[in-house]
Amino acid sequence: MILAEQLKQGIDELGLELSDDVQRKLLDYLALLEKWNKVYALTAIRDHTKMVSHHLLDCLAALPHVTAQRVLDVGSGGGQPGLVWAIARPDWSLTLLDSNHKKTTFLRQAVIDLGLSNVEVVTGRVEALTAEDPYDVITSRAFSDLGDFVRLSRALLADDGRWLAMKGVHPYEEIALLPKDIVVDKVVPLHVPGLGAERHLIIMQAVPNA
Hints:
CATH class: Alpha Beta
Binding site for S-adenosyl-L-methionine: 75, 80, 126-127, 141
CATH topology: Rossmann fold
Helix content: 25-40%
EC number: 2.1.1.170
Protein name: Ribosomal RNA small subunit methyltransferase G
Subcellular location: Cytoplasm
InterPro entries: rRNA_ssu_MeTfrase_G (IPR003682), SAM-dependent_MTases_sf (IPR029063)
Distance between the termini: 52 Å
Radius of gyration: 16 Å
Order of helices and strands: HHHEHEHEEHEHEE
CATH architecture: 3-Layer(aba) Sandwich
Number of strands: 7
């Protein structure tokens, strides 16, 4: 199966409606990721088929659960989920944050090459970031601990905003150790076509005066 067919089939399985132009741009992003990966070590995955499932469809699977206009992707790395979401949702505004200069160099070039006008790339640590307008959604696929994720990014989230953490297996222990004023709205099991591994989306919010 060629990559375009694999991607289209996966998108159909996820119940998403993405134009042919968006699908082409997603594959263009994958080509850039593969090209830059040879020098910058952006991903351990080399197989094209796995790149579609592990990088594109894995990020796209969360889209139906995201309601936002302003999104911050913490530890964006090679652009997951930030760049993938930016391509799929051109009406959203996304900030991609990473402390690794090589990764943000790639992200900035990818934004230029893909012609994305809805993305800002920032090099730095999340605790040092300031924002005049808080974010509707703060997401991450890289943070290993939910507690650190919400603690370090809390000042950047809108009062009615949500954290969306992309995880593998259900993080029972991490959830149990969250601060008392952080509520888990929902834990969504995600079926990612072709992945063959557990994926969960943890949706959280802060409760004032809890």
